[in-house]
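TL;DR need structure tokens for one chain.
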Amino acid sequence: MFGFTIRYLRGSVTAADVSRGSEKDLVEWPPHPDRLFCALVQAWADAGCPAAGRTALEWLEGLGPPLLRCGNVLSSHSVQHYVPVNDNWSLVNNKGKPFALIQESLLTRDRKPRRFAVGTLSEEVVHLWWPDAAPTPELASTLAGR
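>> reply
TL;DR here they are.
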């Protein structure tokens, strides 16, 4: 058996249900295993893409879907924030109005509303595991970050 334990330190999840397209009003729960895999790939890249890490990720990728144990979402809502969009080198927006300068530089920012789904969890721990997986000690060590 091989698995991971994920702890949501704040006791909440901020992840939109991607099956709803651009709508970001519902929380994705339970968490999709691809989120864990993407986080592991990012950690591998941040570590400089070591060969042992690539081998471990390819082994994990070939396992198929894991079993999952998690609590429930007790409540959920979406929060609107205004976030900067890509840098704009124009001093006026598409309506002809001037942008506010950032610290008197020529770099300006427009802000757009974005919604973020947030859910409070009944349990802060999620377990993902593969009951029939048997990694070699080297693979297990690499996946554990040792």
